[in-house]
Every structure is written in C-alpha cells, then in structure tokens.
Amino acid sequence: xxxxxxxxxxxxxxxxxxxxxxxxxxxxxxxxxxxxxxxxxxxxxxxxxxxxxxxxxxxxxxxxxxxxxxxxxxxxxxxxxxxxxxxxxxxxxxxxxxxxxxxxxxxxxxxxxxxxxxxxxxxxxxxxxxxxxxxxxxxxxxxxxxxxxxxxxxxxxxxxxxxxxxxxxxxxxxxxxxxxxxxxxxxxxxxxxxxxxxxxxxxxxxxxxxxxxxxxxxxxxxxxxxxxxxxxxxxxxxxxxxxxxxxxxxxxxxxxxxxxxxxxxxxxxxxxxxxxxxxxxxxxxxxxxxxxxxxxxxxxxxxxxxxxxxxxxx
Length: 314
Hints:
Blueprint: H1 8-16, E1 19-22, H2 27-35, E2 41-42, H3 48-60, E3 65-68, H4 77-91, H5 109-122, H6 128-131, H7 135-154, H8 161-184, H9 193-206, H10 209-212, H11 220-234, H12 250-263, H13 268-276, H14 280-294, H15 299-308
C-alpha cells in the first residue's frame, strides 16, 4: 500500500510496540513512521533464520515486538519462525504470536504492485530485455495488445470469453505502465505513471461538469455536444483533421475524417468525390464508410465481423 495507509488498530499496535523489526523499509514508510514516533530496526543484513530467532528472543524477554512485513512476503521466515517457536513450546513458554492485517486493499491497489514490478524489471539487476526497451521499440506490442483486446471483446460471449478479456486488458495495461516507466528516465522532461493518471483524472473531471460541477445536461446528445465544445476550448488551435492518427486502419480513419467534416458543417457527400478524385474504387469505399456513419455503424468493426464469418468454424 501507499505509505501511511494503515488501519487505526495497526498504527496503535506499531506505536505501542517495544521493538519494530523490518527488512529495508521503503523511504516513504520511514517518513510515515517518523511522524508517529516509530523507529524500526532494519535487519536486512541478517539471514532469515536469525531474523526469526531475534523475533522470538525479543518476545520471550517480555517485550512486544512487531515484524513489518516485506513486499516480497518474507520467504522462509514463517518456516524459520515455526522452528524457533517449536523449541520454545518444548520448553513450556512459547511467546504469543498474532497476525494483524495492517490494511485492506483499496480499489486499484494491484496497480501499485504493477508499478513496483515494472520498476524492478527496469532497474539494475532486473530484466536485460526490459531494460533496453524504448518508446519506439514497444510500439508494435502496444498495437498488437490493443488489437487483441478488440478481438477479446468481439468474442466475449464465447467459452472463457471474460477470462480472456481480463487477460488481454492486463497485457494492454502493462504497455501503459511500461511506457510510463521508460518516460521516468528521460533526462530533460521526465514523467511517471502518477503524472499520466493525474492528467486523465483532471481531464475527466474537467469534461464532466454535469457530474463534478453545477452544469446540467438533459440528454446524451447534449452531453456529446458539450464534450465537443469543451474539447474545442481546450485546443482552440486544432483545425481540420488534426488529432486523427495517421496509423489508424483506413476504414476507421475515413470514418473519423468524415465525422470531422460533418462537425465542421460541411456536406460529407461532397467530400467523397473530392477525396476520390476520379478513383472509382476509392469513391465506392468512401461512400460505404459514409453510409456506415449515417447508419450509426462502425465501418471497421462491421467489416471485421463480416470477415470473421468467412473463417471456418472451430
């Protein structure tokens, strides 16, 4: 969990403890401990068996000792602790052991784990392949994972569809975390995953004044119009087809561009022959995209669905 996010009972137990043992606590947690007057003893230099022995010895001496769990789960500590406690049990006076859940995960807690894992992979001693990746080298994976999410959604009703979608969304989320981690290392203009999240949170709040402010909308159409107006205010210099990625599949890009023509108040039927310039095939394709838009249909998804029907059943 983020530093400081403990339950009240956990903070009380920490403050009441005579001894707090921990393995390389993170600097953010050290600051939080200092604020409440708690000073942990770092036992990172001790083998796991000695850590367990120290725990039992401190408790057997009548002191209340707390072990601060490590992010890796302290492998081997439970077995070592059981061995020491077994010896004490034979002697007839084993210390009392109590496990306290310091906090319950809030929604999004696993995202913090993802950021930490990505940091380990990218840092010295991590994965050589991850360490050498750049924004440019990751682009094929970003594109591939986005397409796999689309495919998973389109087969959501099939066997294992929801599990498949969950997995593919995780793969796509990894790409966002990976790019953000790479961005942290930029020498001139670094940013991190928190900056990315803060930016989209601010945008969502800003573009939903009917939810987070006192604006009022009475229909979806009004909301869409208000959204476009807010976008125009935020980017007053954007004109024409700026902002429509050139890397979009041609059908999807055509539908976006024709939609921009409509929003500009121009007749899209006139834009079709102007773009085709006598190419009959291009004109037919653009006319089909325009028909799809007027019918409220996604041309790209419609063609993709039609192509899937050509595939032999599995």
